[in-house]
Amino acid sequence: MATKNIVPRANGEGGIGTSAKRWLNAFFQNLNGLAVSSTGAATETASGLVELSTIEEAVAGADALRAVTPAGLSAVATIWKGPVASTYSTVSTFLVSTDDAANLTAGMRIKADCGTDGTKYGILSGIAGQTITLTMDTGHTLTANLVRVWYSTRIPNSADVGAIPISAKGVAGGVAPLGLDDKVPSANLPTPTSNVPGIFARDIRFAAKTVSVAADRLIILSPNRMLVDVNGTYLVLTAQQVLDLSLAATWDSVTTDYTVASARAGKDFYVYACINAGSLKLLVSANATYPSGFDATTSRKIGGFHCLCAAVGTISGHTLSGYLAGDILPASVWDAKFRPVCAPEGMVYVDGLGKWVDIYLASVSGGKLVSAYNATCADGTSSPAFHWYKFSQWLGQIGKRMLTQTEFVAASLGSNQGTNITGSADPGTTGGKSDTAGRRMISNVGCEDCCGNLWQWGEEAGGGASSAAWVNAFDGNDSGVAGQHYQAPNRALLGGDWANSANCGSRGSSWASGPLALGASYGARGVAEPLAA
């Protein structure tokens, strides 16, 4: 009768026998033997951990890297055996015992523990007695702190899931060489924006400096970090820059000396990213196409701002109290990501509304409506003459519309209230005006002439109908349009005009005029949505 195999229960008690057995589980304090065989397969556990595929791996202390694919586990990328005690010889050679040398063969992958100098990698290229020679990975050398190595009979190849072919490391079109920390150095990483033409990215937007002293009103602050594509050249900003309008170095040209405040009054200026010997240079320019000394291939317009047309003076509680002509209007600063959907010139951002509003009453330039300083007001008797319909049409063609009453009230806060323009007569031109009390007619965000200058057509309808029959919805001032309206409602007029002091103010409104009314005191102001980020 065959002797039963005894499963030991105490130290030194019995053995596990010699017959082949399939054990469900076994626990050993020590496992000693001359050879081990197994047919175990890798499995995935409920915890998501991957078990080693063979007992050999467990015995060898394998450092196995696996990739999990939809079909299951991939091949093991690298199985390290060892460690083998080693002694440093040179930057690419080391010494081992004769017995250990017998286990090593050319072509093996070697992982060397160099203590505080880190882990180094190479390929075993030669064995001479106890001296082992390596072909080291790029950037890797052995050091005197070498204490042990591991070796692998498996070198990753392109068939391994997630593995990097050794032949591809550090070669053109291959994989960047690893640094001493086993990571790819940032300098060797591909440019992440190489497939993103026209990119403009920044951490914060361009902005006027918060005012502590008068000189702060002349300063634009750049983002802290910015990346901009200028015709295929990627320019990087890594620290915030200060653009001081009082310094000649800020400007592209001093042919017209814009360091002088009077030269800047009521004008729009632009910020450009320029290629300067391969690096980024920020310049301010009055030129709307490209700055002096550069062209459309070496520069890109990325921002801008408007300067105050006339001194505000001292107005208690006013945001712009003390501002002088030529100072930067803080709410006018825009960049390529923070701007209106229309042209940004002559506009300010009204934070509470989340919209951009014209600084000036509408005027005509180049066959379209603009917001510009000291320009002839467009109204019901100008040339061309404008009624509500025509303002609506022309503003719509440039991405704007007239303000609602809610928008007008918010944008005009800080303006003169209950007064009209000094002289109580048609001002004729836009901006820089004062009321009968000598107070500047400007709102907290910088909108000029909101109250007591011209009534401004509003977007909304109400207050009765202008006709009770079908009549033309156009007149002799129109061209290319036709159609009739029936009982068309009146449209809002907001703010008050030059001779209605008691009616004037942010809440001043009249709803008695139809959309075709032509009044010498009927103007308009545009508003636009912000550009989608």
Structure explained in plain terms:
The N and C termini lie far apart (86 Å). The protein is mainly beta. The protein has five helices and 31 strands. Residues 33-77 and 157-163 have low confidence and may be disordered. It is elongated and about 110 Å long.
Quickly describe the structure:
Helix content is about 5%, strand content about 25%.
Helix and strand topology:
Elements: H1 55-60, E1 68-69, E2 72-73, E3 81-85, E4 87-90, E5 93-95, H2 98-102, E6 109-113, E7 119-128, E8 131-136, E9 148-152, E10 200-202, E11 207-208, E12 219-221, E13 226-230, E14 233-237, E15 242-244, H3 261-264, E16 268-276, E17 279-285, E18 299-306, E19 334-335, E20 347-350, E21 355-358, E22 363-365, E23 368-370, H4 388-396, E24 401-402, H5 405-412, E25 455-465, E26 470-472, E27 484-486, E28 489-494, E29 509-513, E30 522-523, E31 526-528
Parallel strand pairs: 25-30
Antiparallel strand pairs: 1-2, 3-9, 4-5, 5-8, 6-7, 6-9, 7-8, 10-13, 11-12, 12-15, 13-14, 16-17, 16-18, 18-19, 20-21, 21-31, 22-23, 24-31, 25-28, 26-27, 28-29
